[in-house]
Amino acid sequence: MMKRTHKTLRIPIGACLLSLLCASLPALGNEASAELAELPLDALLDMPVTGASRFVQRRSQAASAVTVITREEIRAFGYRTLSEALGGVRGVTVATDRTYDYLGVRGFLASGDFNTRVLLLIDGNRINDGLYDQAFIGGEFPLDLEAVERIEFVPGQGSAVYGANALFGVINVITRESSRDGSGRASVALGSAGERTLKAALNAPLPGGGLQLMASRRVSAGEPYFDAAQVGVGAGDGWSRGTDGEQRSAAYLRWDRGGLALSVLHAERLKGTPATVGLIYGDPRNSYRDSYSQVNLENVWTLDAATAVIARAYLGQYHFVGNYLLDYPPPTLNRDVGDGHWRGLEARITSTRADGHRLVAGVDAQVMNRLAQGNFDVDPAGTVYLDDARRARRTAIYLEDQMTLSPTWSLHLGARADQVSGMATQLNPRLGLIHQPGASWTFKAIHGRAFRPPNVYEAHYAVDTPAGYVGNPALDGERVRGDELIAEWRPQAAWRLSGSYYRNQTRRMLLLGYDAAADRYRFDNAGTQDLRGAEIELEHARGAARYRLNYSLSRPSRAGAGAAELGYPQHMLKGSAMLPLPHDWVVGLEFQAQSRRGAAPGAAQAHLALHGHWSAIGADLALGARNLFDRQLFDPGADALRQPVIAVPGRRWRVEASWPLGR
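Now predict its structure.
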């Protein structure tokens, strides 16, 4: 699949003043965000999480520096995509190539990486597709955020728990349980770039359980894209118009009955690609189409007060179509197709029967019964460049034990053995030592290892066209070894200060290279880095108000092969404030600044969101502006040599109104 896809940090004064002003505002309303306000303060800053292990535990007890983004925060800040929600997380940078969004974590963001080094879960279940191992975090994410209860970001090596792809972190999206109150909502939204969105949700009571249904449709014309290198090429003026549009449809069903849960999700997206290198510039026929479906059935059997068994079965499918107008010559419409089908079973048992132990043991098996790639000319029809179909499988066993050594010490031990087609058995351990000398302090020392096998795209995608690809079946898997020290201080229930120091040592990282003489791309095991960094974060909760400020520092201590291609910033400063206002309104403000990322200059931006109830029309109203001060921003390009930077959209606004549907 092609999917071919100033040196100082300058922070706008207006954005800084706005952020400081917001941080100093008192909580003005007592009724807004009622659910959040009713939670005890210790629950707000030490919320339960499940992504760090396969059981529920407090943030302070998890063997990781977990960040939690609640449903109230998703609404208050007006997040529409995972990438927007994750943009404020410490140690995380987000980039776009105007088609997909990409995540960089703790020193690593590489060209040609489709988020394969981060594992994406929904309710603890793998969502990375079976064909390209891609974690979808932008508009291509198959679930509307209205269905989300919280988002957990778990940095570090997670292969001891979840297997492949969890090299630098795990994103666990927790959905809302089905309601039995018969409630529903319908919403309509308008936004910049011609955005129009319709959504509907319904909760229906059923005997012994509940049913949740959601559907949405979004259409956007997109924004013109300017590339100075295209000025004077042919009759062009450098502008690509009508090539950035998007059409997205999604549907979601969840049925709960006791310990049994069934979920079905499906999403399709058609996206124009205004800035992909190697294609005829400015032609609206250049486009990507993604289709993702998954069915998941899970049951929980509670054997006794100390023992439970969880089993699940799932089916998944991903289909990709890429249309590319290439100038061979003559101009020719070329098409990429990718088709992945997979199914799997998982079973695990959790037990606290042994005194001082919390045990999890499980087995996991997945069969990718179809991994197909194709490439051929459509207009004029003729040459077939690629027709490849394969099968693969993954099987694993894992064991985890959270041991209470004393009232102040606990030890987390975990290991997972994975057998993946084409690789030797991978054994990945995790060790976490946690010390809580009192109610205020928590110290953690964590060691973990992770791996990722090459996917079929990296190893077997071979297309003999201009800007084509050369396959490399000899690729080896990637490996990361990580160590982390964490300190958390909570002098009061309303305050939390945490800091961490990490070191990630990578080996045999798969990096995309370009041979200019041959005009061909190829993946190779070329990357070895020693990435070190530190993060600090301050959180404060007061009633329904919530404040967060964090700073991240990352420095590769030894440049290895391919290190120059990393587009991760050395410095990041982020802040947010969620404030209740009178008459049940809530305002959310964010400030994000980062230093240079590869060839992309450092920059800062602010976001503003406001939501509440407008009694005149009987609707909830949400207003938002991303990049509030309309800063000119650039992200690292998808190709470090041929497209080192890419311009991202300026200010984007959005207005949404929603109405209840019966009860």
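Confidence is low (pLDDT under 50) at residues 4-39.
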